[in-house]
Amino acid sequence: MPDDRINSFTQGPDETGRFGIFGGRFVSETLMPLILELQEEYEKAKTDESFWAQMDDLWEHYVGRPSPLYYAERMTEHLGGAKIYFKRDELNHTGAHKINNVLGQILLARRMGKNRIIAETGAGQHGVATATVCAKFGLKCVVYMGAHDVERQKPNVFRMKLLGAEVIPVTSGRGTLKDAMNDAMRDWVTNVRDTFYCIGTVAGPHPYPAMVRDFQSIIGTEAKAQMLKAEGRLPDIITAAIGGGSNAMGLFYPFLDDPSVRIIGVEAGGKGVDETMQHCASLTGGRPGVLHGNRTYLLQDDDGQILEGFSISAGLDYPGIGPEHAWLHDTGRAEYVSITDKEALEAFKLCTELEGIIPALEPCHALAHVMKIAPDLPAETLICMNMCGRGDKDIFTVAKHLGVEL
Amino acid sequence: MTRIDSCFERLRGEGKKAFVAYVMAGDPDYERSRDIVLKLPEAGVDIIELGLPFTDPMADGPTIQRAGQRALENGQTLEKTLQIVRELRKQDDRTPVVMMGYYNPIYSRGVDRFLAEAKEAGIDGLIIVDLPPEEDDELCLPAQEAGLNFIRLATPTTDSKRLPAVLKNTSGFVYYVSITGITGAAAAEAVDVAPDVARIKEATDLPVVVGFGIRSPEAAESIAAVADGCVVGSAIVSEIGAGKSADEVAAFVATLAEGAHRA
């Protein structure tokens, strides 16, 4: 199948940035020339060995890659079914997968001569990663963060400030990730000549979805080699949590043309995917629309107005999803399910107690789905779940939900 | 020939520049918004730009963001926005109406259905901020086919190499965004704008109208003087946001129109 390029799932996007009907370049004219310039620069960098040599060096010595593939033995025993592995991207420098992508974009920004970096952040992990790499390279960094998220992710806000970034609380809309992205785009359109917008997920106008996927696919490339080494074969199921979908796309992409591998994306179900719309499950509860530069599945009302997402996890609190996921969903190559806040919290507790790993609330959604399916699967079934972030930042949220006073 | 084409032809005959006024449909609510729109032609407005509210107006500053929020909170919908135009057409069949907004509410409605309804309601042109020439197949080409003008934004970052692509499927007029930024932000200076307008006019026979950063009758006059007209949006929307009556808003708009018409 990998030799059959016509039927390959890895050939997208086309030259207009489309994955099927999804993706595209829905931005204002002011930004369009810059997006074309970025695309050109990225195409050059992609085939430039010195660019990837620099990335490999930074990934190894600065981020700490490769991240381990870890057999979760007690979790496996407890669930009594499939064999469960964690891809440990929470062990990366800055505590999540976000830095994989930030390094790539910052190197590109330097090639383009842009010395002011802006970013949006939800949970703060992408903001921290961007502030970190900006500190390392001596670049000015401005992070837009919803005022609501600034409140529930205080440790990360402080971290960004320590790293020298300016954190701007966004009060427009309801003050979450979507609104932070709007304000970042407003900044970009105003300061287009000296500013690089470092987008944290596989969304936005082309070439961002493909570019971020390429930088994150180090996760899946490593996991594949590690699984072959550990078990002598590919995993049967790979799974990851999805907000915008960057850690999932990074894990999934290198496996898209391996038909034996079942791919499951896990969206944030919030209080439950029903008519009250208290969730962020764009694929399960949304329909195609255009926002933030791309066409994808969106939570929206009958009149095309965008709805706010709702989740215990600030990192998944986004009413859209990367366009490549939308396409993988429609083609049926990947399946997408949702997990509620309550189920994610149970996974958080179990993982902490059984494995001595305090996971971020984002991957807890993927883990909760593993907890649902693993018991009914045979022992020889191999599951690889992306542990995309560590939970230090979430202990206050978790304490609140458990009714504990810190 | 659309109402927009006729409007510029008439203004040329009179030796006048076009004054374009932007208001958000449904701001602060349907009735008051309708009353304001109905008074605009008499206040001297040559072209009405009617904002289509959207939850995520990425190219707009706080003034217009808040106007959209007010409208949406008070129940404004695409259907009600079309209804305002129908009301206007009952008493005015001459003043062009350009709908300005973002693509998703239109995409959600269905492009063909929307175009038929817009045409029927009496809309003459569309300015859709997040549809650059690269996405012309989405709405621009179907709109022109349906007999609506598709008015493109040109910006300070639209260089000479790119300009032909921007102008290619544009009709009605070209909207030159005088600054890199969002609506209601920095002030535009005629001395900076003039060379850009001249550059665009060299490449097209269409009228060039300048918007963004024009807040006073004096600014309207000086900017209109170096172009075929000017747009004022946030300054008017601020008055509406401050709770002014339809008559007060119309009186303010009249001072801006006089400024532009002095040019």
Automatic annotation (TrEMBL), chain A:
GO MF term list: tryptophan synthase activity
CDD domains found in the cross-reference section: Trp-synth_B
EC number(s) stated in the UniProt entry for this protein: 4.2.1.20
The UniProt record lists the keyword Amino-acid biosynthesis: yes
Residue ranges the record marks as coiled coil: none
Pathway the protein acts in: Amino-acid biosynthesis; L-tryptophan biosynthesis; L-tryptophan from chorismate: step 5/5
Catalytic activity: (1S,2R)-1-C-(indol-3-yl)glycerol 3-phosphate + L-serine = D-glyceraldehyde 3-phosphate + L-tryptophan + H2O
PROSITE patterns found in the cross-reference section: TRP_SYNTHASE_BETA
Domain of life: Bacteria
Keywords: Amino-acid biosynthesis, Aromatic amino acid biosynthesis, Lyase, Pyridoxal phosphate, Tryptophan biosynthesis
Tryptophan synthase beta chain-like PALP domain ranges (all copies): 64-389
Residue list for modification N6-(pyridoxal phosphate)lysine: K98
Protein transport as UniProt keyword: no
Pfam family membership, one: PALP
GO CC list: cytoplasm
Enzyme class: lyase
Listed InterPro entries: Trp_synth_b_CS (IPR006653), Trp_synth_beta (IPR006654), Trp_synth_beta/beta-like (IPR023026), TrpB-like_PALP (IPR001926), TrpB-like_PALP_sf (IPR036052)
Cofactor(s) listed: pyridoxal 5'-phosphate
Family: Belongs to the TrpB family.
Role noted for this protein: The beta subunit is responsible for the synthesis of L-tryptophan from indole and L-serine.
Subunit structure: Tetramer of two alpha and two beta chains.
Protein name per UniProt: Tryptophan synthase beta chain
Organism: Pseudoroseicyclus tamaricis
Top-level taxonomy: Bacteria, Pseudomonadati, Pseudomonadota, Alphaproteobacteria, Rhodobacterales
TrEMBL record, chain B:
Reaction(s) this enzyme catalyzes, per UniProt: (1S,2R)-1-C-(indol-3-yl)glycerol 3-phosphate + L-serine = D-glyceraldehyde 3-phosphate + L-tryptophan + H2O
Alphabetized GO MF terms: tryptophan synthase activity
Enzyme Commission code: 4.2.1.20
Active site: residue positions: E49 (proton acceptor), D60 (proton acceptor)
Keywords annotated in UniProt: Amino-acid biosynthesis, Aromatic amino acid biosynthesis, Lyase, Tryptophan biosynthesis
InterPro entries for this protein: Aldolase_TIM (IPR013785), RibuloseP-bd_barrel (IPR011060), Trp_synthase_alpha_AS (IPR018204), Trp_synthase_suA (IPR002028)
GO CC terms in record: cytosol
Pathway stated in the Swiss-Prot or TrEMBL entry: Amino-acid biosynthesis; L-tryptophan biosynthesis; L-tryptophan from chorismate: step 5/5
Pfam families in the record: Trp_syntA
CDD domains documented for this protein: Tryptophan_synthase_alpha (cd04724)
Superkingdom of origin organism: Bacteria
Protein's job: The alpha subunit is responsible for the aldol cleavage of indoleglycerol phosphate to indole and glyceraldehyde 3-phosphate.
Subunit structure: Tetramer of two alpha and two beta chains.
Matching PANTHER family: TRYPTOPHAN SYNTHASE ALPHA CHAIN, CHLOROPLASTIC, TRYPTOPHAN SYNTHASE, ALPHA CHAIN
Family that this chain belongs to: Belongs to the TrpA family.
HAMAP family to which the protein is assigned, alphabetical: Trp_synth_alpha
Protein name: Tryptophan synthase alpha chain
Annotated source species: Pseudoroseicyclus tamaricis
